[in-house]
Amino acid sequence: MGRSGGFLFRRLGERVNIVLIHLRQEIQTDPHRIRIDQFLDDLGAAFVRMSDGPGLARTIEGPLPMPRLWILSDLHLEAAPFPDAYDPPRPGFDVLVAAGDIWRGGPEKAVATVARLAAGRPAVFVAGNHEPWGMTPARCMARLKRAAKGTDVTVLDGEGAAIAGVRFIGATLWADGLLSGLHLRPLQTTGEGVLSPSGQGTITHGDEAALHAAERRRIAALLEQAPDGLPMVVVTHHAPLTDRMPPGLRAHPGAGLFASDLSTLMTGNRIALWVYGHIHAREDRLHDSGARIVANPAGPLFSTPGFEDDCVVTVGAGMDLKTRRED
Ligand SMILES: [Fe+2]
Asked: Which partner for 79 in 94, 175, 300, 325 could form a disulfide, CB atoms 3.0-4.6 Å apart?
């Protein structure tokens, strides 16, 4: 409310300096030269109206995007006797963000569930460690991508996507094992039912550390390459910080499978929001870097204390974040 803006430009397809104007007196000139049509695509057509202005300039007027992200993860509907019964009243939202472990061993069911919940609106989904149960992570990803084709679900696998005025960067992430010394036992299997990327046996700590390193590099590159102008939201399944591990989990010998310390990625980049799952504990806090960190995992049979099935976070173009719960 009370916030709108305009984009002054000359011609579609032309590379110009975009001037972003916040009418609530925050005037921010952001003179990066980009293609206007690309910029508009990134914003999403829903957020702009075009009108011819006088003279050489044309003006686009409309509200700046303040996308509302509906956040959840770890539904683990494979454990639910009636999975379709999970049909909560939809909060007011623009993009559903599902941070993995929706359905163990069921990539197609996971995508179908996310699409069902999003109910025609766009959704962003990253695979958890449970989606690839019984298969390699690569095989799972191929099935997820195929299932998502033609739907409004965008599956991110070390990839970025601009949706509804937000630049999403998503990956499973996995974990480096450092938290509990698991990196010292690279050949030991993790106990998860995921096949090793090599196709030989089940996944090992070394496999997970390698997947983590590759995905971490990919996220770092995407953060670095992302053009300015859109708020950046990172979505991972595994946790990006280790400092608030729940005490019971910290003492677990497999603690290093849950979280890794990616704080340098936060301090080195302008991240608006980092969404994760995997640890079945609710979290919503502001990191020193300014990144908001949110986890809203349901857990098997919705067992996570504090899980909210109407957790909506609004991401503003000016890094202005607030939680909005819509009844
Ligand atoms: Fe998980």
From this structure: 300
Asked whether the beta carbons of 171 and 219 are under 8 A apart, the reply is yes
Cα separation, 92 vs 50, in Å, equals 26
Q: What is the pLDDT of residues 154-208, one digit of tens each?
A: 999 999 999 988 899 999 999 999 999 999 999 999 999 999 999 899 999 999 9
Taking the centre of ligand 1 as the mean of its atom positions, its distance from the CA of residue 129, in whole angstroms, is 5
Q: What structural domains and CATH numbers belong to the chain?
A: 5-62 (no CATH), 68-323 (3.60.21)
d(CA 125, CA 95): 10
- Report residues near ion ligand 1: CB below 5 Å: 101, 128-129, 278
Q: Quick one: pLDDT at residue 194?
A: 98
Distance from residue 280's CA to the centre of ligand 1 (Å): 8
Whole-number Å distance, alpha carbon 327 to ligand 1 midpoint, is 29
CA of 305 to the centre of ligand 1 (A): 16
